[in-house]
Amino acid sequence: MDLELKGKSVVVTAASKGLGKATALEFAKEGARILISSRNEKELQEAQAEIKEVSGNPHIEYTVCDMMNAEEIKQLAKKAVRLNGTVDVLINNTGGPPAGTFDNFEDEDWSHAFELNLLSFIRTIREVLPSMKKQQSGRIINIASSSIKQTLDNLILSNTFRAGIVGLSKSLSQELAPDNILINTVGPGRIATDRVASLDEKNAEKLGVSPEEIRKKAEQSIPIGRYGEPGEFARAVVFLASGGNTYLTGQSLVVDGGLVKAL
């Protein structure tokens, strides 16, 4: 299948590592022109070099962007247009909020999680829509969490604001469909990233066991029997954001090896 991504302008946020970097790499393999961002320039430089080397695609650029800074988000979109003429694809991604229960957080924690994990997505979408509407075409993927289908213990901030992403995506799917702009939400299950390793370590410390024991127990609950690889998650994202997807919009997909039991 031709995914029709060669030469397309793709923006991937929080892409210096983890799922963002894996997603940028898969787009690079398809010949897209990619702008990656994160807060850490050194990590961005390393990610850029790695993606170029592995994919053989020289059209990988980066820009430093704090997803809690509205002005930097504006500059991110402007740079993508300056480099590539437009934005065909936006992959919205941020780091996850801290683990904890209701009693662990004060107003500032809720405000921070809202701005990082929901308002940042709103801002990036706002900035790329003029280009997409002008060309009457676009794809937006919001990366969330498996909590979009089933809440996760000890992750109340994520459970709250990831659900907001789903509401945003569903509403926008109705508004943007006449412009041939498709928007979907993709939630990772237990994918082998630094974020998941950190959560495993926190659970291990809380329970007085090793992180390896936590992972082994978690894998027993996954029908496929293992954590997913970042590339496996990324390939699902790339399809939804590609020309191969012409009719899926407003949907929420979890890539989780069968872990979530909710319908």
Automatic annotation (TrEMBL):
Q: Which Pfam families match?
A: adh_short_C2
In terms of InterPro entries, this protein maps to: NAD(P)-bd_dom_sf, SDR, SDR_fam
**Which SUPFAM superfamilies does the UniProt record give?**
NAD(P)-binding Rossmann-fold domains
Q: Which domain of life is it from?
A: Bacteria
Family assignment from sequence similarity: Belongs to the short-chain dehydrogenases/reductases (SDR) family.
Q: What's the protein called, per UniProt?
A: SDR family oxidoreductase
- Organism, scientific name: Halobacillus shinanisalinarum
